[in-house]
Design a protein that fits this description.
By secondary structure, the chain is mainly α. The protein has helices at about 5-15, 25-35, 45-50, 55-80, 90-95, 100-130, 140-160, 160-190, 210-220, 235-275, 280-285, 290-325, 340-360, 365-370, 375-395, 410-430, 440-455; strands at about 435, 435-440.
Length: about 475
């Protein structure tokens, strides 16, 4: 019996460790839910403004799917060779050691994941406020109260267990996908072609730029790698992890192309570029004023779907850190009966609520602070991609149930895209300021604080049987 299968059997027999309880459908729903967020309702407008033609625009969305598929195949090899609740954290640990893995986990747990949950909470609150204005509190308090409430509710749902969280995710993803199909259907059957409609002129459209357009395309595709965090919990993971990653990326690519086509068919390329509320403009032209309400509900559902999925995978980073660092061992507890890292989930929820408070206090400054940590994300994403090469060389005899095809071409393509996104995000933050300081210092500060915490956390490595969560 090979080590991978032995680890799975040992995990299934130990109630205090992750067990394979997630089916293929739930895994696909989780990945799709993480990826498809509010960005798809804004990014097509930006991509259209940077594209020289409609053909180029569709080509960019298709290319984004191809690059994501290449990355998904790389992660399929890592996730099946190293099935682990730590996901990227575990890959980085094995390839580069505990310190690099901790810096990744710290950045993710302190800002990247929890900040995303908080920002998505505000998106949910902003759009729900349009449909159901909150009757209590001072003016403007509605979105913050809605954000707080939904983070509390979804945290409790996921503390209840993986079945509750995954079941909620499946229904939310079904609603989200149905909403995107509704936009495409309304454009196809109710909308007039753009040539017959009076599209506004895109006088302020940016000059065509393939590079910048691709940045926004890849950002909209981001999140499929989160599948790695459930690799130890997917039933028949050897086959289903590969299927889940590939099917999810193909489904997302198809949905994105449908949404881009619906917008182009209804508004035209210039109309897309000039639109400030793309999906709302499409629905207004096809179904009338009621379409704007439908879009507000759909964006709220999309935010809700992403929050729940991000909570599920995000808490597993904290769990992995708790297993590796004795001083964080409380985070490393696993509720075997419910199949969830309950302590890490609660701490993550509390941190997200703290960031919601900061968001309420600082407004758009908080949003900018979270966005300016993008270079940190792309740095570790690049390192995770490179870990495939490192681990193949270091552990050549380890059984790999799935090997990425066209090695090393596809992994090199994926790593090159990560390096380019790292450079692009660095270029962006170096041209931004926040509170009079260059925005690049925000990512540096996050990593520096993690580096300062390392001496406080250092302790003899845990025993081989417990140092890595399965």
């Amino acid at each position: 019996m090979d080590p991978v299968e032995a680890a799975r059997i040992a995990s299934a027999a130990d109630p205090a460790r992750p067990r394979p309880t997630i089916g293929l459908r739930a895994a696909v729903a989780l990945i799709v839910g993480v990826v498809i967020g509010a960005g798809i309702f804004k990014a097509p407008s930006i991509v259209a403004s940077l594209s020289p033609s409609a053909q180029a625009m569709f080509g960019l969305w298709l290319l984004g799917g191809a690059v994501s598929l290449a990355g998904a195949l790389c992660y399929a090899e890592l996730a099946t060779a190293y099935p682990n609740a730590g996901g990227d954290y575990h890959f980085l640990h094995r390839a580069y050691g505990r310190s690099v893995a901790f810096l990744f986990g710290w950045a993710r747990f302190s800002v990247i994941t929890t900040g995303s949950i908080a920002l998505l909470g505000f998106v949910f609150g902003d759009y729900l406020q349009q449909v159901l204005p909150f009757p209590l509190g001072p003016p403007g308090a509605g979105p913050t109260l809605y954000a707080t409430a939904i983070i509390v509710v979804l945290t409790l749902v996921n503390v209840r267990g993986i079945r509750a969280g995954a079941g909620t995710q499946s229904w939310l993803t079904l609603l989200e996908v149905g909403g995107l199909l509704l936009i495409a259907g309304a454009a196809a059957f109710l909308g007039e072609p753009a040539a017959a409609a009076s599209a506004p002129a895109a006088a302020s459209a940016a000059p065509p730029s393939w590079g910048m357009a691709m940045v926004f395309v890849l950002l909209t595709y981001g999140g499929w790698n989160e599948a790695a965090y459930i690799s130890a919990e997917v039933r028949d993971g050897r086959r289903n992890m590969v299927k889940a990653l590939v099917l999810s990326v193909l489904l997302i690519t198809g949905l994105y192309l449908l949404v881009a086509w619906a917008c182009w068919h209804t508004l035209g390329l210039e109309g897309m570029a000039a639109s400030e509320a793309l999906a709302a403009d499409v629905m207004r032209r096809t179904v009338g004023p009621a379409g704007e309400v439908l879009i507000a509900v759909l964006v709220a559902v999309s935010a809700l779907t992403s929050i729940n999925a991000t909570m599920i995978v995000g808490a597993r980073t904290g769990y992995a850190m708790g297993c590796d660092w004795p001083r964080l061992r409380r985070l490393g507890s696993w509720d075997g009966e419910r199949g969830t890292p309950a302590a890490a989930m609660l701490v993550q929820g509390a941190a997200a609520l703290l960031l919601v408070g900061l968001g309420a206090a600082f407004g758009s400054g908080f949003k900018a602070m979270v966005e300016f940590t993008a270079p940190v994300f792309w740095l570790f994403f690049l390192l995770a991609g490179l870990s495939l090469f490192v681990l193949r060389r270091r552990e050549p005899d380890l059984p790999r149930p799935f090997k990425v095809p066209l090695y090393p071409l596809l992994p090199l393509l994926f790593c090159a895209s990560c390096a380019w996104m790292l450079w692009s995000s660095l270029s962006y933050v170096f041209n931004q300021t926040l509170g009079g300081l260059n925005a690049a210092w925000i990512g540096v500060a996050v990593l520096a604080l993690g580096t300062l915490l390392l001496p406080l956390l250092r302790a003899p490595p845990a025993s081989p049987g417990s140092s890595h969560p399965p």
